[in-house]
Inverse folding.
């Protein structure tokens, strides 16, 4: 009898341990980030404020070399979420990969920079004929601009896009005169101005709410950890609310994480160049897919299916939760209106 009781208790304990381990795994998320970047600012802020823990999550960060490395890490199960990039994600999905865009990070964000001497020569998309344009491949602004330039009827044979290895290289090319204009983002518009250049225009002036960085995961992660992804978005929405209401804390937390200056962080978050948004913006993603397609950046045998490529329900559930928690908060009503427009 004693042996049977002991065995029964042991079985109950082991079953309980199994349930606890399973629950811990389902609420554990690994997020890819490049060093101490604050491009995914609300993800960083939610972590720094302890919001993930408060929502019952165990969120850790894994360093990645670049966006392709991040997507490979998702594919291999090394990370669950890549909160940056859109170009590689759309490209791989078009080629049949099972990545899924389920949330946003920022919209717009891209700026065209020129020398002081050229500030009046490029003010809209009809001014690019005969120009050399410095850009960085995984950046949305120059792709959107290319499509818009084509729509003006410009002779695209005279429009020369030159890909550089980074935004500082873009700035240098414009300063030296080897490029007439450059496209930058991630706060590099401010860096360009500090180095004597001027911002000719923000791409958002011509493509309002254009998607930039999105949050990407895989179908497998959604199947196994959907509830955790909802909680993740809830925490990110809480970070958005903090950024709206407490600028001082927001800037300080992001400075502490990144080691960047107050001026830089302020510019990134509050200059209204990069617009913070957790909304996946399904319709805007389709618009950007069509931009890439018109530019010849999508394979001829594309397997793109918008309904499979984008899952808006995770963000929608998170937003509904925040509306239930804080029904008087105007931010949630505003985001709900945007969600209906964007999805």
């Amino acid at each position: 009898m004693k042996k049977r009781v002991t065995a029964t208790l042991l079985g109950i304990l082991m079953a309980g341990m199994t349930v606890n381990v399973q629950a811990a795994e389902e609420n554990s998320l690994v997020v890819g980030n490049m060093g101490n970047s604050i491009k995914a600012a609300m993800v960083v802020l939610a972590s720094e404020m302890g919001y993930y823990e408060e929502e019952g999550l165990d969120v850790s960060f894994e360093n990645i070399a670049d966006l392709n490395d991040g997507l490979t890490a998702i594919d291999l199960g090394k990370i669950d979420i890549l909160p940056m990039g859109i170009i590689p994600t759309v490209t791989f999905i078009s080629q049949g990969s099972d990545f899924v865009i389920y949330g946003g990070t920022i919209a717009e964000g891209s700026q065209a920079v020129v020398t002081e001497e050229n500030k009046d020569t490029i003010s809209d998309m009809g001014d690019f004929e005969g120009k050399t344009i410095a850009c960085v491949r995984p950046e949305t602004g120059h792709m959107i601009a290319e499509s818009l330039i084509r729509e003006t009827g410009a002779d695209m044979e005279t429009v020369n896009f030159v890909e550089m290895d980074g935004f500082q290289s873009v700035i240098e090319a414009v300063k030296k005169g080897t490029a007439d204009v450059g496209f930058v983002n991630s706060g590099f518009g401010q860096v360009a101005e500090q180095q004597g250049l001027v911002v000719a225009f923000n791409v958002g002036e011509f493509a309002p709410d254009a998607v930039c960085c999105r949050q990407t995961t895989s179908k497998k992660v959604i199947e196994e950890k959907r509830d955790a992804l909802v909680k993740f978005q809830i925490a990110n929405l809480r970070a958005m609310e903090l950024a709206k209401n407490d600028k001082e804390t927001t800037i300080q937390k992001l400075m502490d994480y990144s080691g960047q200056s107050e001026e830089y962080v302020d510019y990134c978050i509050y200059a209204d160049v990069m617009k913070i948004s957790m909304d996946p913006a399904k319709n805007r993603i389709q618009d950007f897919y069509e931009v890439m397609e018109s530019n010849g950046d999508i394979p001829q045998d594309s397997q793109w299916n918008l309904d499979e490529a984008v899952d808006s329900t995770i963000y929608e559930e998170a937003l509904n939760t925040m509306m239930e928690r804080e029904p008087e908060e105007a931010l949630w009503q505003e985001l709900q209106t945007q969600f209906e427009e964007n999805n």
Notes: The radius of gyration is 22 Å. The chain has 15 helices and eleven strands. The chain has two domains: 2-108+211-342, 111-205. Residues 111-205 form a domain with the D-Maltodextrin-Binding Protein; domain 2 fold (CATH 3.40.190.10).
